[in-house]
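Query structure, 86 tokens:
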């Protein structure tokens, strides 16, 4: 099992009209892989209430990150740097 940190973000506009990611919720989970970590985190978080725009999963051992947009409710955040899946 590996440790992962899953972060749920909402994309909002600041007073200057620039978009940025606002962290809504972050959970640490254990799973065999990145996809399973996302599924486990989604079970722990009520996304209906959060209405997250994007999700970022980070493998805690080596700090590799990737953004995930597998469900229609998630889309990649344009303000985020490109992430590489481990």
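Result returned for the query:
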């Amino acid at each position: 099992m590996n440790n992962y940190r899953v972060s749920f973000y909402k994309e909002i506009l600041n007073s200057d009209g620039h978009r940025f990611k606002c962290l809504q919720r972050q959970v640490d989970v254990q799973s065999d892989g990145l996809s399973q970590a996302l599924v486990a985190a989604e079970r722990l978080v009520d996304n209906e209430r959060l209405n997250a725009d994007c999700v970022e999963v980070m493998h805690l051992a080596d700090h590799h990150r990737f953004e995930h947009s597998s469900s229609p409710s998630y889309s990649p955040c344009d303000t985020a740097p490109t992430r590489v899946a481990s």
